[in-house]
């Protein structure tokens, strides 16, 4: 009954608003679902947890889905996860099948989203039940594992690990948290900043800086060039028929499952999911020569995989408290705003919120499908919104978000600038932002788990001998490092 | 933290706040040196070809964005102090900031594009200020 009181028209209106705004963000090249969630997060202040999550989950699903519009019509991936959609989507547009390609992509997105939602509903509670039994040692090793997986899937293992540890280091700035068993002493803080940094850098201004301001600085560096418009792009042409999915059921299910699995791996983005699904479909296809020339199967693989990520990425967040990707990292902020900690106890302690999240995700997927199918011709026009109008508004919203997050602290606005510049610099020197963020979010927990384990047991060997789970985690850590080294060697051999 | 044997440690609670940061700093140092060793040749090649940042970037738009943003951040609390608890610091500073930034990003300045930039600079902050500050009572600078 409590759930029914939450599922008000307002709840569904927020899901719909979030989905539409998310589609718009996703459809504009250079703007991402992560940015949409970061910029709109302060709006959830006055909404309450469930309504706030309704808006943010709508933004997440819409943002991931919207990326297919410019990918198919302009050959520009609206979000990184749409990168493989361009390979066959754009040739279809060139062949006069733009609308057909869009609708194939939209339908595949819906299927991917629903399959991943089912996985979320089934796996997250089971994983959370299992994770409740974890001690500080297993929790520390899971964080360590998450960082190595992310680093292993980065362009360079060393740089990925470095970025993750840098994130941890910066998260330790401030006092050693008394409320979690620390001694309350400040560290790594210059004297003149002690007043501002007692609790360290706030998470959300950091995220907004990294994803909002840094993106705009990168665009500014490149001169804010306007993309090619829709003139000359033929959206209509050959009509869409559902029969195009005949013989594609295996592709749909396999690609959605790949997306969901990749989403469950912490910190791995949608681009990895769609690339993996696309290459698998091409390998299994009887007509691989058609790929890259306008094969509907390529669009199906790519779009079902990147939407498959959405539910998958929420599994580690809601069961272990570890974000599955950078967008779900920002969702942690929504929970923090409402004073709720995500982790193994979340689903058991908040069953109504959990159910509301599932319903919001389901509604977001359906609304995304309906909006994009029936309004795709109008929505496609958003790819031509001038950047000189859009980006200043985004910057203003970034400021609002940073300022309001702690009820009006100007230092948080400066934090936004500091991390915006840092994000730009990281882009220039090719630091990996995803491991950095996960390190920044999980650093304080990792510290508590590590130090308290040593205080209790007095030996480093406990990290290897505590339980079979600890041993298994060390094996997984070793495997992820070995995988990365093997991929790097293969790459080197190919370039030689 | 003191080491009783290679694996055994005793933690002093009073200094426990420095254990983890020290370990992380040491690991960061090792990783940094490893990156320098493994990528030394690439870094040296980049340095020696002389194509240093900020060469090749759009100086006007990049540094203009940073300069305008810093001025905006400094102006907001100053103006906000004149009209405390009204959010007017945000509102009154956002209008010129948005107009300046929109104009900076324009590639072809005409009467029409400047009018659109001006209208955007007026409407967007007004809407945000009204919705957040007036309707939702969210504090703004």
From TrEMBL, chain A:
Plastid listed as a keyword: no
Membrane-traversing stretches: 12-41, 53-73, 104-128, 140-173, 193-218, 258-278, 356-376, 388-405, 411-426, 433-451, 463-488
InterPro entries: DUF112_TM (IPR002823)
Organism classification: Bacteria, Pseudomonadati, Pseudomonadota, Alphaproteobacteria, Rhodospirillales
Protein name from the UniProt record: Tripartite tricarboxylate transporter permease
Domain DUF112 intervals: 13-438
UniProtKB keywords: Membrane, Transmembrane, Transmembrane helix
Automatic annotation (TrEMBL), chain B:
Keywords carried by this UniProt record: Membrane, Transmembrane, Transmembrane helix
Residues in DUF1468 domain copies: 18-141
Organism superkingdom: Bacteria
Transmembrane segments: 20-41, 62-82, 88-106, 113-132
Database matches in InterPro entries: DUF1468
Pfam families according to UniProt: TctB
Name assigned to this protein: Tripartite tricarboxylate transporter TctB family protein
Lineage: Bacteria, Pseudomonadati, Pseudomonadota, Alphaproteobacteria, Rhodospirillales
